[in-house]
Amino acid sequence: MRKCWVFLLAFLLWLPVTVKAQPSTQELLKRIDELSRELKALKRQLQEVQEAQEDQEEVAEKVEEMQENMGKLKFWGDMRVRMDSTRAHVPSYWLPTSSGGYALQEASTRENDTLYTTRMRLNARVKPTENTVVKMRLAFYKIWGMGDDYITPGLFMGMGMQNNFTYGVRPSDTTLQVDRAYFNWTNIGGYPIWVSFGRRPTTHGPPRQLREGLAYEDREATPSGINFDVPFDGATIGYQYSWPWTGRIRICYGRGFESGFKMPIDRAKDDIDFYGIAWDVLDDRDRDMLLVIQAFKAEGVMDFPSGKIYMRSPFEVYNPQTGSHVPMGYQETYVTTQTNLGDIYEIGATWMHQVDLPLWGLKDVDYFVSFGLSITDPDAWSTWISNNMGMYVSLLAGPYFQGQIPSDALDTKRGWALWLGTRIPIPQLHSKLGLEYNYGSRYWIPFAIGTDDPYMDKIATRGHVAEVYWIWDLPTGEPLTKYSRTFLRLGFQYYWFNYTGSASWLGTPVAIKKGLTDPNQPPQVFSAPIEKMSNFYMSLEMYF
Asked: Between 419 and which of 231, 277, 370, 480 could a Cys-Cys bridge form, CB atoms 3.0 to 4.6 Å apart?
């Protein structure tokens, strides 16, 4: 019985403690409210996680879509800032005076110490379907402090306005111009045949890319650079073969000038068209070998491309204050194509190769050999009025005054050119050294209007040109794209002119040494003849 009372007493003592530990109704309600708030917060966090997952999935889809589109759409470009310093020697020569006689123009030196230019090019490539591709290039090219290229009067016939042969490749204002825009349709009918239409890739062709710092495979154009460096609008049909080696052949057509409705009073009566064949006989990129053979015809070549031309007066006037004859100055005139003068044929071949020279410890040495032939077939005269006197010009003929035109002035003329070069890597200095030489005969005239050199294309020289250049890849960090490159290019060119009129298809080439100082047969020349010229250039170039 005592044990029962002890157990009962212990239970009674424990009971208040236990009852006191039980939560009250208010505490339970408070706890339920806290749990509700925690549940809402948990639901809110869960919803945020779900929304974040949905956003991540949407971002992933967009990234995937962007990656897919980036495979079809590519952008790249380059920018160049260049400085040229040029000096030219003009020998003595006879010029007609306004009084009907002739005056001896004394020898002189012309120079432009610094000429700065900026060029930027933006490229795009779009592949909308498996067998089609669209390519384009926009270009901005400007001389510092100028809105045109009035930098050549007296030496070369500078064009102050853009025309069909210079858009995007010659200096102009700050306009971003269309240099190239064309599309290709490939694999037609399952065969290695393609067609292409639009603004053609016909400037800076091989081997020009070497001196521009590009690799062997970075071919810039279809035609070889020795005959053709002109942008134009047209079409191509091509066929690629792979046996016994890789090569391709293209048949090309282009429109150089549209005459419009036939109004021969103020414009040429016929269109100017290009026809040609460009044959990559061998294009082996595994062994870095390229052989190009080409033949082109320019039909109905104009006298002047449309634009504003700065032309020196062909006469000298007597200055009583100095007692001597002085030039009448330069005339700025807007001209348009007025006359179809005849046809020009261009034939050329270029061989490029990259080799190792183990005996000299040299690797990846590029070299090339180019040969060009030009044939002019004139059939008409163009008249240029100066001081109320008519002067007659044609393809490699003139200028002549009325009554002075020789009977053989419109005969066919043939010229030729040779171009050699090499580029040697110097890996210890992260550099390349280039050496080039070219020669052009008396009647040599390539289609090289589109050159981006400031005065004239050196390949158009009737005489000799030697050039040395050095390309240094600058240490600008790891490239972030496959196009990324930054380099400094230094070069020096020296010209020996044998005949006048280099780079122009108008006017009779006159021998520099013999034909300029004979008072019995004074030559007629559009521009002051140049005997020698030197040009130093330096450019900083970035590809992105």
From this structure: 370
